[in-house]
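Q: Joint fold for the lines below.
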Amino acid sequence: MSIEHRDDTGARFGMWLFLYTEVILFSGLFLLYAMALAKFPNDFSNASHRLNIYFGTVNTLVLLTSSLSIAMAVTALQRGRTKLTLILCGTTVFLGIVFLINKYFEWSAEIGHGIYPGSHHLAEQAPGVAAFFNLYFFTLGLHGLHVVIGGTLITVVAIMTAKGKVTSERYTLLENTALYWHLVDLIWIFLFPLYYLIL
Amino acid sequence: MSEQKHEPVPFRTFIQVWICLLILTVTTVIVSRIHLGPWNIWAALGIASLKSSLVIFFFMHLRHEMRLFKIGLLVLLVIVAIFIGVTFFDVLYR
Amino acid sequence: MSETNSSYSGFWQQGQRRGILGWLLSTDHKRIGIMYLCCVTTMFIVGACLGLALRLELIAPGPTVMSAQTYNATFTVHGVIMIFLFIIPSIPASFGNLLMPIMIGARDVSFPKVNLISWYCYIIGAVLAILSIFTGTGAPDTGWTFYVPFSTQTTTNIDLAVMAAFMLGFSSILTGLNFLTTIHRLRAKGMTWGRLPLFVWTLYATAWVQVLATPMIGITLLLIVFERVFGAGLFDAARGGDPILYQHMFWIYSHPAVYIMILPGMGVISEVIPVFARKPLFGYWAMALSSLAIAFAGSLVWGHHMFASGMSDMAILIFSFLTFIVAIPSAIKVFNWVSTLYKGSIQLAPPMLYALSFIFLFSIGGLGGLVLGAAASDIHLTDTMFVVGHFHYVMFGGTGFAFFAALHYWLPKFFGRMYNHKRAVIAWALMFVGFNFTYMPMQVLGVMGMPRRYYDYLPQFTTLNQVSTVGSWVMALGLLVMFVNLWKGIRSGTPVGPNPWGGATLEWQIPSPPPIENFGEEDPVVTHGPYDFKGVVADEY
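A: Joint structure:
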């Protein structure tokens, strides 16, 4: 009675398709960004200077490292080293939290300066500056949401690994979660230069 | 149905890729401090594309996947390029 | 099969759970398909009633049955329900779920649980859409396109309606990725790409569009909510935004979406016509690849909705040119259907009547599309009743009639009973006549200059509007006869065997209704193409 045909490649393909949809989701924001940049190159440069490049760079390094640890977690599980897998998943989630804490301090500083969507301060700026910060908050907010979702997924899969539901024989769930986390990293790889490094 | 399982990728490969990624990150920050005019944005995007290919091919194991996955990625990139590229026909000529 | 008919009822009786939970928690693709079918049909009836109310309001100039604000809300809700809750999920989610796994020789889709989740997303979307009408500060009144700046400023209940559309988009994405994985991974032995029924090919092309275009509407709708909550001015020209970019993003999804709507309908027609012409489909590969070509070309042409929006002339030129490219694969399909009919042994059963009228109505709508795709004539016709007429010819005359053809063709399969043919023909005739009387006057009115979405009109438009309204009543009568006939048929019609029409695709080789895992112990092995009718005989009933 059970419809039990395992198809790991199929499951991964489904996950990749889902990642495509995520890329298109963000590509809408890249589209808005590209059009606004073409229209207000100088305003964008000015606005970009007001972001703190150190926060951006540190967060990039943090996310790249977390990508490394989750990729290693998959290998560890494939080799049957459950304990190492759990440690690496924990590292990833920890780095994700570090990323969010960084983001919190960065945003608090900006909001403290009166820069947030719909603020009076922004309304008085040049139109390009307002466009930059509106997009900045929306895009990075959406990305932050993905970090939260990814971290939650990794936590759930780590618990399932500890309980023996995800094993060196059936590791597709961890693999797919890792794919999701890599996507979060991928999007950041583009967001970082576009928002922090435009001069 | 033939099951395709990945051979575990050795830790060493991942760490090498990670080091490349760190180097590229530092590079992109340094390049952005040099004034190149409009080339700054292309340099930044170029390095970002390089970094993302490293992530996609190594961390995400695309290297070992069937051709279907690679064709899918190509389709995705073409579609994104169309969405953003064709919109420029409006914005640039307005 | 007659010996098993009295007690046998296939997937309707089998399953792990009994009663209502056996449906709500079922991951069987057929049960999910039936649940979708019930929902989309209900939504169609609700949307049709709103449409009738709109036509009634326009029976005479000036206010007749509703206020102007109610009229705005009615056409918005009519659009939202018909587009997001009926047409987009109609054929792919209901008949796609019911048939695609059987047609490729699989026991279920690749991700049965995701399939169920997608149905729940649909239900959440439907509930939110209905709540948006009755709660808050009044039903949305922006039209189904939610254009800025009105949608970011109006006080009506846009947020809920937008979130409803977002959930429905999510449901559509999940269905799409499920179908893609299934078609790639779960085809039976011998089911090569060259032996896929064309309905599956069109679902495949549709699924790519669903996966690659739908997220764009997701982000656009989220931006509307962001805009309404924070008032950031992303689309406000005074604050660095660009209202035309909203239209770009909206149509980047919504134009490909019309191919999500029509392609599966074309697939249905490609199944019905060979069976009732008793001839293999003409030009199999041209038909299969033209589906992909439509899906691809369809994602290049969104700007033809925006010729009058203030877009650059360069963009108008390019989009107008690209629009004509879509006509090529669409015409390939029409020519191949007609060539299939040529010298066929045509049998005018009810599904065939709907399929033939599909070709007729879709061609009229398609030709109107060329008129609108040419920038020069579009400047005059945009936002007139011509657009309304054109849109209903392709969407209702196209997808709607394909949906009815699918109902008449496949319901006997899934319910194991046949409806009354004579009444089906009467219903078809009423609908076909009523349809043309409803929408042809709209096209003429548009050319005469009557704008769309207007509550009132000049006295010289009265006669044609009255013809259109009376036509809508004839069509409604036809719909009523059709639904009653189908309902009676599935309740108490004559029992049918596995293959009442003499089809050659896999679903006709298993009992009606199909058993829970579609095929018995053995997985099917496919040895011939989908339209190879040699030795296939229709069952008597």
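Q: Anything notable?
A: Helices of chain B lie at 11-33, 39-59, 67-91. Residues 67-91 of chain B form the longest helix (25 residues).
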